[in-house]
Design goal:
The complex is a heterodimer of chains A (about 325) and B (about 475).
Chain A: H1 9-34, H2 49-58, E1 64-67, H3 72-77, H4 82-89, E2 113-116, H5 123-137, E3 143-148, H6 155-166, E4 171-177, E5 180-181, E6 184-185, H7 186-189, E7 205-210, H8 214-232, E8 235-240, H9 258-268, H10 270-280, H11 286-309
Parallel strand pairs in A: 1-2, 1-3, 3-4, 4-8, 7-8
Antiparallel strand pairs in A: 5-6
Helix pairs in contact in A: 1-2, 1-10, 1-11, 2-8, 4-11, 5-6
Chain B: E1 3-6, E2 16-22, E3 29-30, E4 35-40, E5 45-49, E6 54-59, E7 65-69, E8 73-78, E9 127-128, E10 139-143, H1 144-158, E11 162-166, H2 182-186, E12 191-193, H3 198-210, E13 214-218, H4 229-237, H5 239-242, E14 252-256, H6 272-276, E15 282-284, H7 289-301, E16 306-310, E17 318-322, E18 335-339, E19 343-347, H8 351-364, E20 369-373, E21 376-378, H9 382-392, E22 395-402, H10 407-419, E23 428-432, H11 441-447, H12 451-461
Parallel strand pairs in B: 11-12, 11-13, 13-14, 14-16, 15-16, 19-20, 19-22, 22-23
Antiparallel strand pairs in B: 1-8, 2-4, 2-7, 3-6, 4-5, 6-8, 9-18, 10-17, 15-21, 18-20
Helix pairs in contact in B: 1-7, 3-4, 8-12, 9-10
The chains are: A alpha/beta (about 325), B alpha/beta (about 475).
């Protein structure tokens, strides 16, 4: 990028902190998985932190987010409590879904987080539906739908893009292109790899963004959000990013070289990029950054403690929340 | 030879229509592709095209004639060189009376029920049951189609958040005209035509429900909802549970389900048992117009996702609907449509009509049948069924869908669990033959269960 995006000490410190919380939270979740405290599927967001953090910095309170099963980062970015998320990972009653959803299925009406969806691509039309509700209710909100490069090949994504453009829905389609659909690299799964062009046949504008640079993500999202909010319809943002870990905890990621991963970590890490700028601009020194790290570690430690000690759901919970009672 | 132009069928189920307008007059020369007349049914308006060249000879059915049966000769076309004298002179038909086709129209074999003997004069103690409405409530004759429309219109007037989306629901007025005039009253914000993308618009409906609206998603038929079943089950039905009770999804998925008439296997699938298998859904399948209205209104108000299974062959049936401002039928309650003492017959949707016909026949043969209209498939009203079986000691479960893992299989299992000791005979089931629905009229008729099948099963469990 030719010129550095504008920011301030306050903003960058905040974004750094947000990304670091996701990183440390996910590292801990990986550990707990190894210890057997987290079961089933667990998809970590490590490496992709700049995407949701940058998007969140560009949207307004009340704008909705919806994503796939790789959802921990989104919830933390929206300000859902680390303890509530971690306790859901351990399947405890203190979790956001009271232990009944797990890693892939959490929601928060209060924080406008609409899940947490396990079927690849299914969140995309649902997110467009949130956009339809916004337009219908004329509430000034936009919805942001996150999906991966793998989901970008699902048919329903195109059905949703078509209707979103046809009806000018205030929805941002945010593709987190981490280069791998589980174990299949984008070049092996995708005939035309420029995913930001995927809306062209519907007239949906798309932009490719350096998804490792939180400020680039913020700026691109701001423009796209203004477009959607002004009634011009949806936009696609293709965030070029990378996940350091496997697809899920059970994936050893043998389909790529160690060098490829180290290169991304050492030269493009979103948290390091933010850190370097903070130091260069003299907005923080190493001691200040250490203090932030300490804070974050304390939050994560508290979340782990809560997730370990919160009781499992009461057996009576088995039959609750299947149907709502009909109001008399 | 003059060419007979007959009243055409606009759909496989059309039996008669109105000849609204002649677009030619006697003596006009016409060629293939010219418009001859305009005809109308309760579902659609269509123009009749000439397929042969010739001169309009005799117009046999006057403009404005209603109830013209399919197959009636409406016009005779003279071929080159012919004069009017070749025509025998048929009597002109007045615009007030319906016509009878000079040659009988080829009737679809499938829709023809098995010949049913008249019930004997002295029926046994088996009586029809009235629905639960205040005494003195007037009844209005309404088609099932209009009852469904009225339910939606009433709920849309009552709640701004209610809207309908689907293929052809707005401008076209509904593929089966169930959404007729809704666009005119509510506008295109609330009556939304979608592209032919069931998977996508079902998902958008779910998202809109999560976002605070009350969507009604119409599938042109439930067969097409196979494209969308992931959203019905994974996105709508499971979300409340997966979110620990936080995320609601109040949505109605509706449309015609099951076999219509001569439309082949891919358009004739009964999905009752598929959706009934899923916790987190309510599944409703009304039989008559009153239930269609009252249950759809309840479904729209329900805070849960509801699968609402209609029947295309019932849309045109004219039945009584209570003349009440707000007629609601609770979801989850079966209705004893006919009280009897010898055998219980359960059915839902169109099959209820077959069960009632069967009960008439059985009455003539000295067997008193109790007919239970399930109305709701999930939650299934076991109490009503078990109570009835404890009285009759015999049960026949009838449905239009397949037998394996069907609604009858479920009911039989519950009866065995809860009333085994009351049974005087093994429970019997009546269902569609275990084949994809065939197109040929005779095979289609063989594959679908009819009243006679119910009679045979009922006599079987009564050892008669």
């Amino acid at each position: 990028m030719a010129t550095k995006p504008k920011t301030s000490k306050k903003e960058l410190l905040h974004l750094y902190r947000e990304m670091l919380l996701i990183r440390r939270f996910e590292e801990k979740a990986g550990q707990l998985y190894g210890m057997g405290l987290i079961a089933g599927f667990c998809h970590l967001y490590i490496g992709q932190e700049a995407v949701v953090t940058g998007v969140n910095a560009a949207i307004k309170e009340g704008d909705q987010m919806i994503t796939s099963y790789r959802d921990h980062g989104h919830m933390l970015a929206l300000g859902m409590s680390a303890s509530g998320v971690m306790a859901e990972l351990t399947g405890r009653s203190g979790g956001y879904s009271r232990g009944k959803g797990g890693s892939m299925h959490m929601f928060s009406v209060e924080k406008s987080f609409y899940g947490g969806h396990g079927i690849v691509g299914a969140q995309v039309p649902i997110g467009a539906g949130l956009g339809l509700a916004n337009k219908y209710l004329d509430n000034g909100k936009i919805s942001t739908v996150f999906f991966g490069d793998g989901a970008a090949n699902q048919g329903q994504v195109y059905e949703a893009l078509n209707m979103a453009q046809l009806w000018k829905l205030p929805t941002l389609f945010i593709i987190e292109n981490n280069q791998y659909a589980m174990g299949t690299s984008i070049s092996r799964s995708t005939a035309q790899k420029d995913l930001y062009k995927r809306g062209l046949s519907f007239g949906v504008k798309g932009v490719q963004v350096d998804g490792m640079d939180v400020l680039a993500v913020r700026d691109a999202t701001k423009k796209a959000a203004a477009h959607a909010r002004s009634g011009k319809g949806p936009m696609i943002l293709e965030m070029m990013t990378y996940r350091y870990r496997g697809h899920s905890m059970s994936d050893p990621a043998k389909y790529r070289t160690r060098e490829e991963v180290s290169e991304m970590r050492e030269e493009h890490d979103p948290i390091d990029m933010a850190k370097n700028r903070l130091l260069k601009e003299k907005w923080a020194d190493l001691d200040a950054l250490k203090a932030i790290d300490k804070d974050i570690k304390a939050i994560v430690a508290e979340a782990v403690e809560f997730a370990k000690t919160s009781p499992e759901p009461d057996p009576s919970e088995l039959y609750t929340d299947v149907l709502l009672e009909v109001d008399a | 030879m003059a060419i007979d132009i007959q009243m055409p069928a606009l759909s496989p189920t059309m039996e008669e229509g109105t000849l609204t307008k002649w677009l030619v007059k006697e003596g006009d020369a016409v060629k293939s592709g010219d418009m001859l007349a305009e005809i109308e049914t309760d579902k659609a308006t269509m123009e009749v095209e000439a397929i042969d060249e010739g001169v309009v000879g005799k117009i046999l059915v006057a403009e404005g004639t209603q109830n013209v049966a399919v197959g009636t000769v409406i016009l005779q076309l003279l071929e080159d060189g012919e004069g009017v004298e070749v025509l025998f002179a048929p009597k002109e038909i007045s615009s007030e009376t319906a016509t009878t086709p000079p040659t009988p129209a080829p009737e679809p074999v499938a829709s023809k029920p098995e010949p049913i003997p008249e019930p004997a004069a002295a029926p046994v103690q088996s009586a029809p049951v009235e629905i639960d409405v205040p005494a003195g409530t007037a009844m209005v004759e309404t088609s099932v189609r209009d009852a469904l429309r009225d339910a939606m219109a009433e709920e849309m007037r009552r709640d701004e958040r209610v809207f309908i989306m689907g293929e052809e629901v707005a401008e076209y007025q509904g593929a089966y005209k169930v959404t007729r005039e809704l666009l005119q009253e509510f506008g295109d914000k609330r009556v939304i035509d979608t592209p032919i993308t069931e998977h996508g618009f079902a998902g958008i409906g779910v998202g809109a429900a999560m976002g605070g609206l009350r969507p009604i998603v119409e599938f042109m038929t439930w067969n097409f909802a196979m494209q969308a079943i992931d959203h019905i089950i994974n996105s709508a039905a499971k979300t409340l549970y997966m979110s620990g009770g936080q995320m609601r999804c109040p949505i109605v998925f509706r449309g015609p389900n099951g076999a219509a008439s001569r439309v082949g296997a891919q358009h004739s699938h009964d999905y009752s048992s598929w959706y009934a298998n899923v916790p987190g859904l309510k599944v409703v399948a009304p039989y008559d117009a009153a239930d269609a209205k009252g249950l759809l209104k309840s479904a729209i108000r329900d805070p849960n996702p509801v699968v609402f299974l209609e029947h295309e062959m019932m849309y045109g049936e004219i039945m009584d609907v209570p003349d009440l401002d707000d007629y609601l039928v609770p979801i989850g309650k079966a209705l004893v449509r006919r009280v009897g003492s010898d055998v219980t017959i359960t059915a839902h949707s169109r099959m209820v009509g077959r069960a009632l016909e069967a009960a008439d026949i059985l009455a003539g043969e000295g067997i008193s049948a109790e007919v239970i209209d399930l109305r709701t498939i999930r939650p299934l009203d076991s109490d009503t069924i078990i109570k009835s079986v404890k009285k009759t000691n015999r049960i026949v479960c009838a449905e239009e869908g397949w037998g394996q893992s069907g609604i009858g299989a479920e009911i039989v299992a519950r009866v065995i669990d809860e009333a085994f000791d009351y049974l005087d005979a093994p429970p019997a089931r009546v269902f569609q033959k275990d084949v994809p629905l065939p197109y040929a009229g005779n095979l289609e008729a063989l594959s679908l269960p009819n009243a006679q099948d119910v009679v045979v099963a009922a006599k079987g469990v009564c050892y008669k």
